[in-house]
Amino acid sequence: MAGLERVDVAPLRAAAGHAVVGTSVDRVRESVGIGRATTASSFRVASLTKPLTAVAVLRATQRAGIGLDAPVLDVLPGLRADWAADRDLTIAEVLAQTSGLAPTVSGDDIARLGDHDGVALDAARLVVRAGSIRSPGLRWEYYNGNYFLAGALVATLTGEPFEEAVESLVLRPWGLASTSFAVPPDLTPGDDRGRRVAGTAYPRGRRPSGGLCSTVEDVLSFGEHLLDEPDLLEPTRTARTRAGDPMRYGLGWALGPSGQLYLNGRLPGYRAALLLVPAAHLVGVVLAADSASLPAAARILSDLQRDHTGDDLTLAIDTFAA
């Protein structure tokens, strides 16, 4: 069994009105629902979107015969007139958050661009127009602008709007039928310190960094498929950071001391956390509709993997800068 019977979920019950814990070992799944939530309940997954965006970029580059060391400007020549960033910036450095881009473009800046089909390229234009603060590859710094740029890479490489490209590259092939950038009518209502969070649409230009809604079943499926595909897993879990960086980081994931991949997602009213342990073929996920639930979720995921690694990842999962 995947091991939920050995994990104390009581703190999560106390912290979240509605949440689901799911785990899979060698595709044997277990789950625990809290409140009225089940494995089919839909939640905002926030920055858990980034690994799916990264997989979409990987698949798009593989199909186009482009390496991850290709300069972004070569893929997005339409931005040449606005390009103030380092011209040697590569695709891998964008996905690894080691781009050196000036972290000045906010979510509100992107939201003001509107919801037209070409918004991914317009968002990327804002990001590269802001320039760089250091050479690429020198330092890891969390910045959603990297993933706004990644969205434009996916759209340009496929010739489709970003959402359609993710659908064709990741969601359909992996059977993630309950994962979407559209807000489902049955989205679990979020709670942000006692305030009910409405299920409004996520700004389209920001979607590559955190716009998906999904279920525990689909997130487990995503993790299982990633573990099963070495041509995607190996570049994803290769460390792209330096010894002095705040953390070890691959393509869209933080990397633990024993080969774990983990991250969290945060939006008002929602918290999400995801963990992979490739050596144990373990996937663990917590989706919760409560802003106060992340510490408990991090403890649960850490406990799930402790027997396999001996590591305590509670603080790392909780404080990851999603």
TrEMBL record:
Does the record bear Calcium in its keywords?
no
Native organism is Nocardioides plantarum
Residues forming the Beta-lactamase-related domain are 15-294
The protein's GO terms of the molecular function aspect are:
hydrolase activity
Q: What is this protein called?
A: Serine hydrolase domain-containing protein
Keyword tags: Hydrolase
Q: Does the keyword Hydrolase apply?
A: yes
Q: What class of enzyme is it?
A: hydrolase
- Which EC number(s) are documented for this chain? 3.-.-.-
Top-rank taxon of the source lineage equals: Bacteria
Q: Which Pfam families would you find in this protein's record?
A: Beta-lactamase
